[in-house]
Amino acid sequence: MKFYLITIVIYSFFYQNTIITARHINDEPDGLWSTSKGNAQNTFRIVSSLPTNYSKLPWTYEFSLTSQDVTQFGRAAGINGDLYFFQSQIRSHPGDWIVCLTSNGNVRWTVFVEAVPEMEPVGVSNIVSDRQGILYYTISFSGDTIYTAKICRITHAQTSHPVQQCVENYQLYMDINAPLVLQEKYDLLITAVNDNDIDSIPVVLDKKTLKIIWFDRHVFGAGMDGQYRCDLKTGDILWLGGDDRLLKFDYNGHKLLNNYTQPGLSGTDFVLDLQQEIVVQPWQDGTSLPWKLMVSSTDVSTHEIKSRWTWKAPPPITNNDDITAPTLDENGTVYMASLPLAFAIDNQGKTLWTTTLASSSEMKTFDLKSYCVSMNPKRRVLYIVTGSPFFHKSKFLCFITASIWIPEK
Q1: Which of 274, 282, 391, 395 is 20 to 30 Å from 49 at the Cα level?
Q2: Averaged over 268-278, what is the pLDDT?
Q3: Closest to 45 in 3D by CA, of 14, 10, 92, 73
Q4: Tens of pLDDT along 161-219?
């Protein structure tokens, strides 16, 4: 079978990037649209087919940065290769409208969020798309003494006339960027909402009615910064909170796992091996200074988490405090980047290979950082986005490292 690849990178001055991959292939498992980064292995976004008018030319979409100070962007990919993200018109707003760009960089449509009188938007979720091309997102509003939130659905997103439907529910309020996950096995939407000043809790909604099915404010507090992954076989949901607590619960809200994981790098995405129920996550060992960069693999198939292996970063990156989220292939091999290196770790925790992405002088001149990693596992190609931060005014650089051939096992 031939595979046709389009890789699109969205880079913003606010550390938000994504890689979207499109292929002609129909044998992928369900659920590859479940999170803001695609599947639970963070490999790529599946798009059912390439647009027939895709030009293959690079493009730039420009807008005024002066009004984008706290915009969350909430980027997402559609089933036809379209891109979706928030923009704002006021510096303090996380989002005032959603823009849809085609794969050629043209604006297909703009949809304003449904405003609430006498309130301002204070938080949005990422945008997710199901396999029918329907988009979902949440947005929260606050006034002087009141607050509320909405869960919204956009249909006909592949046309020039999208239709938006929103349901208001104050229980969905979240005053920071909320994760939103699509669980297709049971047609659920999972997000996080405010519990108190320091905790958030999972909330599960019916994808069709947009009504809350369940939440539990007594046992699910897990920090304000969290990440979700869904097990496609069982429908179970894993949540790693900002307090380093890993929760696992089924679609009815029954808690299956509640254990602490390794400390540090809270909120950094983790990956889930769907075949073996294994979680891989980066963390920092703070038992001595400076903190040491680590990557660990954990078995989450039972009621007690079990450590499988811990990988210690080599000297060029051992003291780094930033690293990309992992991506995982079908053999359980993990791929990550922390400048100046990109590297692969096998399913036993051993280093397979390392490669240098940038020299010391380049890192110093451009203040470089690797932002995200994506992969086409069929073609064995890894993609890494590296760039300067938005505040680096003198010399700015952004580049993609691609065609790193991953050895077959």
Answers
A1: 274
A2: 77
A3: 10
A4: 999 999 999 999 988 778 888 887 888 898 888 877 667 788 899 999 999 998 877 66
> What Cα–Cα distance (Å) separates residue 38 from each residue in 43, 131, 198, 216, 394?
7, 12, 28, 27, 35
Cα separation, 225 vs 174, whole angstroms: 11
Which residue has 């849809």 as its token pair? 100
φ, ψ for residue 170 (rounded to 5)?
Answer: -65, -20
pLDDT of 69 reads: 53
Give yes or no for a cis peptide into 29 (omega within 30° of 0).
no
Q: For residue 31, what pLDDT band results from cuts at 50, 70 and 90?
A: very low
Q: What are phi and psi of 21, to 5 degrees?
A: -115, 135
User: Of 231-235, 249-253, 348-352, 371-375, which gets the smallest average pLDDT?
Assistant: 231-235
**Angstrom distance (rounded) from CA 391 to CA 33:** 32
